[in-house]
Design a protein that fits this description.
Elements (H helix, E strand, L loop, with lengths): L1 E6 L5 H11 L5 E8 L5 H8 L4 E3 L7 H14 L4 E4 L8 H6 L4 E5 L11 H11 L3 E8 L9 E8 L6 H24 L3 E4 L2 E4 L2
């Protein structure tokens, strides 16, 4: 069974899909710990409702690396195999990324490399403004640069005529939840291999 650590700053809606998949035995995993840099993040409440350990790590007065070291202590204490970033509104230190190389996944609400560098509603607003016909989401391993790193899975979402940023977010989130669960499964089955900074999925 794969032990997950989740870093979240917001509601962590996608985490609910993971919890549901675990509880319905569709996913052989356990969320060992949820960590937030925001004391009032609903992600912590969501975790506690399902008897999952949840911790607020206070970033006040800590440099980026110092904060990440505190987060590492919590992850190590819970023997985490894979770290997931779900709506985590912090830039990670290089030392953190190196420690968790190819064991640290992020979900981004666009088809990377398009619309990299923005978060949440800003991405959906930019997508609509661009006038493109479809968007989607990307699950990728995290490297030292923002929204780069080996792409594991992507899923397309069509943009309807009267789409709003809010309605698009809902559609994209459903796609996110599908590929996060699939990505965790593949990781647990050792079916993701990274070669030359590219992720390959083994049959």
């Amino acid at each position: 069974m794969i032990k997950l650590g989740i870093l979240a700053s917001t509601r962590a809606t996608d985490m609910q899909a993971i919890i549901d998949a675990i509880e319905s035995k569709k996913l052989d995993a356990r969320i060992s710990i949820v960590i937030s840099n925001k004391e009032d993040a609903y992600a912590l409440e969501r975790a506690r409702k399902h008897n999952i350990d949840a911790v607020f790590v206070n970033p006040k007065g800590l440099k980026r690396e110092e904060f990440d070291n505190e987060v590492n202590k919590v992850l190590d204490k819970h023997n985490v195999d894979l770290v997931l970033l779900i709506g985590y509104m912090r830039i990670l230190s290089n030392s953190f990324v190196t420690k968790w190389k190819n064991r640290l996944m992020n979900i981004h609400p666009s088809l990377l490399p398009d619309f990299a560098g923005s978060m949440d509603m800003d991405v959906h607003a930019a997508v609509l403004k661009s006038g493109i016909k479809f968007t989607g989401c990307t699950l990728h391993f995290v490297d030292e640069n923002v929204d780069s790193g080996p792409i594991i899975l992507q899923k397309k979402v069509n943009i309807d005529k009267n789409e709003t940023a809010g309605s698009l977010k809902e559609k994209v989130q459903k796609a996110e939840q599908e590929i996060i669960i699939k990505g965790i499964k593949l990781f647990g089955e050792s079916k993701i291999v990274v070669k030359n900074s590219k992720a390959e999925i083994l049959e």
